[in-house]
Structure formats: structure tokens, C-alpha cells
Amino acid sequence: MKIVIPIALALLLSACSEENKSSSSQVKTAKEPTQKVEVVEKKVQETAVEEAVVEEVETVAKEVEAAAAEVKAAVPARTGQTIFTACSACHGADASKVALGKSQVIKGWDSAKIQNALNGYKDGTYGGAMKGIMKGQVTALSDEEIKAVSEYISKL
């Protein structure tokens, strides 16, 4: 009997130990879905935040575009006459001067010819001796400004 009781106790304890192991693994298994749900919930929240940020950025971009359009509309366009003041230093007040002794007289040219010449200077496809100087003069002009100054010169 002395031997039977310790063996029975050992068996009983080992059985309890096995139960603890299986219940421990059940707890781990039960925790895993909870952890997965938490990870999914976190990703859903992150996605919602990202979508909100994207939406806010798009809204701000639209507001900036609208503000830029307002500023552009508020800035008075330069007139052909205003633009020509820079040209008159070389071409003369009425465009009848041979600029720097090397260019053609532009007085009497029609608007289309002047526009073509200025656009050619701008893109580097037009001009002789004055090509380098003129490119620097017209590079900053917009298409609208080139049209305006061309029309002004053609009427001189």
C-alpha cells in the first residue's frame, strides 16, 4: 500500500498536469482570434485615417487651385504697350530702329509675322545675330503676352 499511494498520487498529478497543458493551449488558441481581430480593427482604423488624410489633401489642393486662379485673375495682364517698353530700348519707340545695328526694322510687320518671330526666338528656331539676346528677352513671355506685344507693334 505504501507503494500504491505514491504511484496513484503521481498518476493523479500527471493527469492534472496534462489537463493544465491542454487548457493552457486552449487559452492560447482562444487568444489568437482575439489578437487577429485586434490587428484587423487596427488596420481598419489606419485605413480610415489614410482615407481621411487623402480626402483632406484633395480638398486643400482644390482650394489652392481656386486661390491661384483668383490671384491670376486679380493680377492685371501686361499690355502690349507695357511689354514693348523693354523692346523700345533697342528697336526704338516706334519700332523703326535697327536694333544694335544688326537686326531688321520691325515696324510695318504684321502681327502674325511678329508672333512667329518671337515664338521662334523663344524656342530657338528663329534668328540670326540677335538670336541669343532675343531668346533672353522673350523666354519669360507667355503666349498671351507675345500676342499682345505683336499686335501692339503691328499697329505702330
Short synopsis of the structure:
The chain is mostly helical and 156 residues long.
How helix-rich are the residues, as a percent range? over 70%
- Counting DSSP E segments of at least 2 residues, the number of strands comes to 0
Low-pLDDT segments:
none
- SSE pattern: HHHHH
| N- and C-termini, Cα separation | 132 Å
How many helix segments? Answer: 5
Describe this structure in words.
This protein is mainly alpha-helical. The chain is built from five helices and no strands. It has helices spanning 4-74, 80-91, 111-123, 131-138, 143-154. α2 packs across α5, α3 (111-123) crosses α4 (131-138) and α3 crosses α5 (143-154). It is rod-shaped, with a radius of gyration of 42 Å.
Indicate the topology.
Layout: H1 4-74, H2 80-91, H3 111-123, H4 131-138, H5 143-154
Helix pairs in contact: 2-5, 3-4, 3-5
Keywords:
5 helices, single chain, 156 residues, mainly alpha
